[in-house]
């Protein structure tokens, strides 16, 4: 029992240890541990070190025994955490498990932020895509109108040229010039 914090350090994870002994679970085997509030670990991952394994459930128990919530654990600085660990007289394995839990929770937060940003960016890019698509459609419609105007002017020019030639209103040089223009743009 730590006189400063009133925490019985010897009992950290003792319920987990007892349940492991009853089930015959070796502390180094992979096993999915419930980590509370419906959250599970993927592929049974858990805190590991050279001396053996500490399930994350034990790290949550340590965290609760220290009177820390998940958000407090994530938001506190490493220095503050080290002071809390020192005053609670946690052994090395418990300290590593607690720090692993903190890092895991921080990584989950970073991943959630990344997913949120990605969703927001995707929405923004889809809006941009629709804006650009509408602009392209407007340009295509304008292009079609201009092409129709050009075709109309060509028809008018060809008809006017034919009428001028038919009524002998142009000289030979003018006819050759306008015929060259007409062939060039056909």
TrEMBL record:
User: PANTHER family from the xrefs?
Assistant: MAF-S, ISOFORM B, TRANSCRIPTION FACTOR MAF
Q: Name one Pfam family in it.
A: bZIP_Maf
Which InterPro entries has this protein been placed in? bZIP, bZIP_Maf, TF_DNA-bd_sf, Transcription_factor_Maf_fam
Coiled-coil boundaries: 122-156
What domain of life?
A: Eukaryota
What residues does the BZIP domain cover?
Answer: 95-159
Would the keyword 4Fe-4S turn up in this protein's UniProt record? Answer: no
Query: Which UniProt key words apply to this protein?
Result: Coiled coil, DNA-binding, Transcription, Transcription regulation
Q: What is this protein called?
A: Putative transcription factor mafg
- Provide a GO CC annotation, any one: nucleus
For this protein, the record's SMART domains field holds:
BRLZ (SM00338)
GO MF term list: DNA-binding transcription factor activity, RNA polymerase II-specific; RNA polymerase II cis-regulatory region sequence-specific DNA binding
């Amino acid at each position: 029992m730590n006189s400063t914090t009133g925490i019985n350090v010897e009992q950290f994870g003792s319920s987990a240890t007892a349940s492991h002994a009853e089930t015959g679970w070796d502390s180094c085997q992979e096993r999915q541990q419930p980590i509370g509030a419906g959250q599970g670990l993927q592929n049974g991952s858990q805190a590991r070190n050279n001396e053996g394994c500490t399930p994350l459930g034990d790290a949550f128990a340590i965290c609760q025994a220290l009177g820390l919530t998940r958000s407090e654990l994530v938001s506190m600085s490493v220095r503050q955490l080290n002071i809390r660990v020192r005053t609670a007289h946690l052994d090395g394995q418990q300290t590593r498990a607690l720090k692993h839990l903190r890092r895991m929770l921080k990584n989950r937060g970073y991943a959630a932020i990344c997913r949120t940003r990605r969703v927001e960016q995707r929405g923004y890019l889809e809006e941009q895509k629709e804006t650009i698509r509408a602009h392209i459609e407007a340009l295509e419609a304008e292009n079609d109108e201009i092409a129709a105007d050009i075709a109309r002017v060509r028809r008018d020019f060809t008809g006017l040229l034919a009428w001028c030639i038919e009524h002998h209103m142009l000289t030979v040089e003018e006819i050759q010039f306008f015929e060259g223009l007409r062939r060039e743009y056909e």
